[in-house]
Structure prediction request, 403 residues.
Amino acid sequence: MITTPAPCCALPIIRRLLLALMLLALGLPALLTILVGVGPVRLSRALRSRPLIGTVEPPGPPPLRLATWWRGEFQRDFEPWFATIIEPRGWIIRWTNQLYYAAFRKSYMLNRGIVVGRHEYLYGMEFIEAYCRADGTNDVSPAVAPRIARLRELGDRLASERSLLVVLVTPSKAVTLAKFLPPGVCDRPVAPEWPSMHFIALLRQAGIPVIDGPALVRTMMARDPLPPFARGSVHWSLLVGKRVASIVMDELGRSWGVDHGGLTLRDVQWTAAPIGFDADLAALLNLRRPPLDYLTGTAELVCRPTAAGRRTALIAVGGSFTVGVLEPLAACGLFEHVDLYFYYTMSRFQWPGERESVDRARLRWQDRLAGPHVVLVELNEALLSLGAPHLDLFLDDALAALR
Prediction:
């Protein structure tokens, strides 16, 4: 007797289950990202609003526009941004980073560019390299004298256009807080502060208005309960940035003889939790529990704008230390507008306004510098050892336009 097998009903059910599992596997990362990925997304947006040194800045969501899609820019930038926030990849990376940090006090983030020092003080590798090179016994860099001469020429030409050049030299955490560097990083240089002191002296001899950031933070460190660099930051603190913004306005009044306004600080507190620049390297460690158990200083801004200041534009060329100075000036509305050419050609930040790319070939400095301007050039003391090609490019273009 031959029996015919009964129709199999299990196969469609298995197919549906497999399809459901496939859809779940595809959709679970997106769901997890929405539920638990708020932190990384918020962090990415916060750091994009405040640029970091060089290539330290993490990727952010690319702008979705017809032009960026057509040119392929959106597609190119989407993948690296999406890879930083997708879960559970983010969980795995953060837990791996946490174990590595807890066991060895090291990080492989940013191509191992974050160095953990004593008492969990964080440093940027490039600043440590510059510190180890900076030595009072070294010869003066051959680029210093020509750079001073060209800065003086730019200052003279701006003065003929009713504008003013001010140079801001910013400090290195590795020099200022060398006592927290990891043991054995290098032999302590002889007088590592000498290159910046010499450069500032030459600027003053040339009659160029200059703000000595390294000297300012040394003075602050002697009187403040907290250091001028937060434990988890590569930059000077937000409080120091506000103080320097006030000093910039005082320098403008002395050098220009015109009251362009000012700002002061009141109600200084030393019990604030670290945010923004005060936690930039700690956040970039990308840990499950970032080492944010330290305090920072805060203060309230007291703004004093004037009509002369609001008729004047401020153009800055420099790095990320400049942001902490420009944001208080912009918040107080002391200038008509404030622009930062971040490392000259990397990006242009505008207050009020947005961030945009910079095409050096399309810059027209003869038009941009028309009318009264303050031109603030920022140079970190680390770059006196590593070189500052962005500043030399700006001097090339600005002088060519004004000659």
In short: Residues 24-52+73-87 form one domain. The first strand starts at residue 114 and ends at 116.
